[in-house]
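Key idea: predict the complex, not the pieces.
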Amino acid sequence: MHHSVFRLAWFAMIAVTLRTAHANDPDIEFFEKRIRPILNEHCSECHSAESRKLGGSLLLDSREGVRKGGDSGAVIVAGNPDKSLLIQAVRYTSDEVKMPPKGKLPAAALADLEEWVRRGAPDPRDQPTRRKPASTWEEILRTRRAWWSLQPVQNPAVPSSSAGAFTHPIDRFVASKLEQAGLSLAAPAAPRIVARRLGLVLTGLPPKPEQVEAFVTQCGGEAAASLPPAAVEQLVDQLLNSPQFGERWARHWMDVVRFSETHGNEWNYEVHHAWRYRDYLIRAFNADVPFDQFVREHLAGDLLPQPRRNESLQTNESVIGTSFYRFGEVNHDDCISLRELGYDLLDNQIDTLTKAFQATTVACARCHDHKLDAVSMHDYYGLLGILRSSRLVSHTIDLPGTNAALKQQLRHLKVELRAELARLWLHEASQVNQYLWAAHAKKWSAENASQLAEGLDAARLEKWVAILAIDKLPLEHPLEPWRQLGNATDPTAFAAEWKKVAETYQREEKTRADFNATQFTMYADFRTTIPPDWQVGGLGLVDGVSTSGEWSIHPEGEFLVKAIQPAGCFTNTLSEKLNGTLRSPVLPIGKKSISFQVMGLRSSAVRLVSNSCQLNYKNYRALTNGELHWETFSPPDDRDSLRTYAELMTMLDNPKFPDQLSALGGDGNNYRLPWDKAAENPRSWFGITQVVLHDVGETPRADLHHLQPLFAGKEASSLQEIADRYAATVQKAVQSWAAGQATDDDVKWLDLLLRRELLGNRIALSPRLTALTEEYRRVESKLLSPRVIPGIADSGSTYDQPLFIRGDCRRPGETAHRRFLEVLSNSREGYPDNGSGRLELAEQIASPNNPLTARVLVNRVWHHLFGAGLVRTVDDFGHVGDLPSHPELLDHLALQFIREGWSVKKLIRSIVLTQTFQQSSHQGTDRAREMDPQNRLLWHYPARRMEAEAIRDCILASSGRLDLTLFGPSVQPYRETENADRRLFPGPQDGNGRRSLYIKNNLMESPRFLSAFNIPGGKVTTGRRDSTNVPAQALALLNDPFVLQQAEVWSKSLVRRTNDSVESRIDSLFQTALGRGPSSDERQRFASVIHQLAELNQVPQSDLLTNVPLWKDVAHAIFNLKEFIFIP
Amino acid sequence: MNSDSRRTPGCPGFSASPLSRREMLRTAGNGFGMLALSAMMSEDSKAAPTAGQSPAMMPMPARHHAPRARNVIFLFMDGGVSHVDSFDPKPKLDELDGKAFTESKNPTANGNRLWLKSPWPFQRHGECGMPVSSLFPHMARYADDLAVVRSMKADLPIHSTGVLRLHTGSNNAGRPSMGSWVTYGLGNENRNLPGFVVLSFGVVPCGGLENYSSGFLPASTQASLFQADGTPIDNILPGDRNPRVQLAKLDLLKQQDALFSQSLGVDDSIESAIKNYEMAYRMQSLVPDVLDLSRETAATQSMYGLDSKVPSQRLYGIQCLRARRLIESGVRFVEITCPPGASNGTWDQHGDLKKGHEKNALDTDQAIAALIQDLKQRGLFDETLIVWAGEFGRTPHSAGRDGRDHHPEGFTIWMAGGGTRGGTILGATDEVGIDAVEDVCTFYDLHATILHLLGLDHERLTFRFGGRDMRLTDVHGEVIRPILA
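Result:
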């Protein structure tokens, strides 16, 4: 009885509580008969203590579990099936979950579950779940922070070497380990081998023959038993100081930051100007920029109070580091509907950042706390918050003084040009009434038409006629009142007609002003100043806004003035070569629409950026109209959490340039060409006057104020009087403009007359105008084009990111503070709100107290010098990574590295000067091979295959085709045909002889020859490349057209040698390719093969030394030698 | 054949006609050629299995359970075939045709939309009475051999993520392709051929070549791409016109490399690099041999459509026939892509549905049917799993009047042979073909099923990378048991 009373109560109060069913309760029967079987059959696999993986942390095998709910919170609202997530899930009406995943339950089961919830989910299962409660994160972290790589860097004592022979601390660390294993270092390698090894390892090219010979001599000959330190130091310093050092080590670092020059995905957009980052790396490694500075520049180069300046290039170097965020794959789809796209992109940035600098797999914590390492979801989302408080932008890296003198000259010339133009126009303005009359007469075929045309320019008059012949002009058009009044057929009724038109105008002006005032909220007004919360970039906007009457100039052709502009912000007031970007704050919630009053051409664009999506086509609009007009967008409703902002940019700053699918962007100019072709003419510009917010479905109406002079004052009694008013208005406009006092109203008159060629605009109008224009254009042509890089910037406001339950962006959870990893900062406190936090993050990573940064870098260097790191998993120092083979040595090097000012060159120098580095690669003893097959103890120097780039570079070096030019835009990789859909364009077979790091890294398709040798893809950090050994590599060296081509190049230079014999030529081939002469056996073997090949090719003895195909075969064979592609 | 008869050294103007492969090796005498020959002779002895006999001399790697299939041929329907126009008839659409459809959540399918009925009639085929539209008359003849899944559900309506998901299980690049997993799991059967081959038309698929990548798995499991037209694989044609010249070089290399290897004491990587030259050398002739269709009878060639006047149909026929020859030679996993069509995938008919789908059907239908028939005739059908799938289906509604957009919410794939149960239809979409509502299957399930049929447990086939034991099916996937024989 008890329960039925109770049930009555909850029906009455509709406040149902979850029920505990007791024995003899009919609800128990209901549960046992109907509910338990459903739960057992359909739910228990994932939601019980026995589940191999518990779904959504939800247990349905006990009362306690059902009531506690899971990751998404409570699953049952007692009495209310509609509000219960469990019921929504099984009905398949929830957006979040549809259960069971394999298909809907039978209708009967669904009805039973609904009834069960309606009854208050009575549940007799009082046995608590047997699943062990999970440890708290605090407990877990306490254990995990004991991991070796998280301990402070120690200063281990350098072992005393019982062998006594070793003075260098590194050798003593290595030797002592070897000694413990009963092993020892190998004998020193031959001087020639060491020279080649050094050249290949430090510069990626064989050393110059004269360097080798000098070195061998200094060492006392080929068979020197030891290498004099002074000789090695000299060679090492030569190599470290050669520009090719920077190229080699830049390429290593490019693997770490997943360098790529396109974004892959369907349309393979360009990572614009990515090559500037590559050049930055080369300069940085050559200049030995301290690594802690290098870290700061990568993470926050845009925020450094004192950025590094490049005086010779006149650029800001530090900001280029931030390009590293921008590589990798980027999707172009609508990321408002497909939110995960934005989070995937930032996930890749977090992954790269944490692997590159901390060798930590933080991205594992996107969906759950890291399974093994000391990284929580709060850590991951803290970093995500930092990135979401930042923006992916283009930076112009020119120092502020760029072009200053030229710009000053242009400004002066513009003053003179304006004066001369005004002089000419004043005269023309005084004739406006005559033109109007003459045109009017012509329109109506009046008898005096030809008489009125006398003394007027016939061509100009035709333009007037043409305009007046238009049936209807917009009301705001300055000639519309004239057209209306001129149509009046009865001259006697003119006064009445005038009154009617005047009243219409007065009334309409007020209506429009009222409409505009009530329906639109000003969001940003660029007519007086750039709103301070907008971010400005580019060389075209350094002078801020311009006043009414500022004007732009045609860069070429017979016309001078391109436009006379109202007050606003224009990138082209001096030149269309100068670029510009404008970025708004995060857009405010509320109004449905946002409209921009803009003009612009040539791949400039206005768009809204949501959720960091750089290439998405939604809310993107190319500017294809050189007159002011409105562009309207509907920002997403949740623009605050999507961090939506508005952006305007010129071509060089436009990441969608050249737009692959013009239909989406509206930019039909140049969308299926290589970037450099499309940007051959980099002129591009935009202007903006205001931005408004509104709900109404139209844009602000044009105001009519500029027409007031026609209607103000006393009534007009004749058309003649109106013509005079027109002339007076234009004259006044010209006068104000000449005096620099034009208003926006004046500008409307002047700009219209110019655009319709009703005012003279040819540079030939006067000799002075011609001379000034030519001078202007000459100076303008000397302006340096802006230098732009892809980077990151603070967004101007901060955003603390909610955790996403199981990584699902539709399921926000607790808020994470923006901060660094708790285990490394020993704090959970968030960064202050005065910036994204990147600067703080940079400092924490660049800190000498960070246990990972120095260790990770030192290990990367070791990896490149020895082919394997002390920790072989160079990108992962966590639990899945490898343990260090020589932990003390690693710490010793890390500490020394920090002490010596984070100098990479000093670090490398120190390591290569050791006997460990200079030992022989001969694998002497079977015993060592058995004990340490992986050579982790370094009982010999590991000979290994070179990387793809080095193989190609060595081929070019041997053939003589190598072009050692440094820097610059990349060369397209070789490809037979173009695939414009994927932006894959064919480049030269030999890459113009440039080193391989200048071959374009295309995310969609690696350069063919290089990819056979494991060049990394560019999507994820690859600090350690695969070095596979597959037949494709043999096929590439045997048959690739590049290899054959270079063999021919080499052959052609060989056959030109005079005073040569087969033997001396063999010697030369060996010297060039292998840095050594042949043994007499080898010389003989080659000679005999050469004769055999001559016979096969039917080359007569007399042509032996001049036959190109023959020597091509020999050169080709050399390229295929293992010795040729191995670091010895 | 007497090789001496060809040798007339010193005779001006003489140019040797190409030697046969074996002859070439024999005349090369000792050294490299001899070595390559001996390897090839042993290969030859098992190169041509007779009908019904599988090339089973090669040791089978360990499997988790008894396999039903030895090989997979994956027919990738790039761009997404319309399910409501092929295997999932929706009479309701005839009723709704031309009526307004309220806005779709799918960003690639928005705007003013109208329901669109199928332009193709459906008929029942086979003993099972499976409905197949008139698009695929040839495949329809094998209705009793197809196991159709009408309740596939993919993730996003985007080509790149969809294609990656289908191939690698992940929306993002960097994961191994299913062919790589299979090769990793089963090993390479023919050491002279790659285990995973993609028969391509030179099109870089959406998502990039990553779709065929080995990801974190050993690079040897990566796909080799054989092109339909022209040279089938990169650098397979000898750069040396005269085979004797190549052999002379290879002999020289072998001696020099041996010296270099000695100078290092011993180095496995050099030893295996030397072996690679031997394999590369053999591949130069073996690959063209395997792909040489002139050995097929005229009847077979014609069955595959090699006599078609339509170049794309002929090329697709070539690829299907090559697929059969490749699996006969021990290649485990062969993927056949579609001839180029719409720019983001052959079947991607946002407009011109009628024309586009009919053209693609013409290209592929006959050859696929021929493949089934041919495999049956040769007794290979039961051990070869054929999978026919695209990255998603197409919307039952349209923004124009003759196009359909991306549709991952419910669509159709089929499997045949290799332990599947022919004549089956599993799952269903709702009455308008929008949502998969019964027996929903994902690509994880497809992957689990493929592995299962090959004798591999998708939960146990793992590779440790980046902190986890990675799987093709991540943490998902269930074998689609109802379609197993």
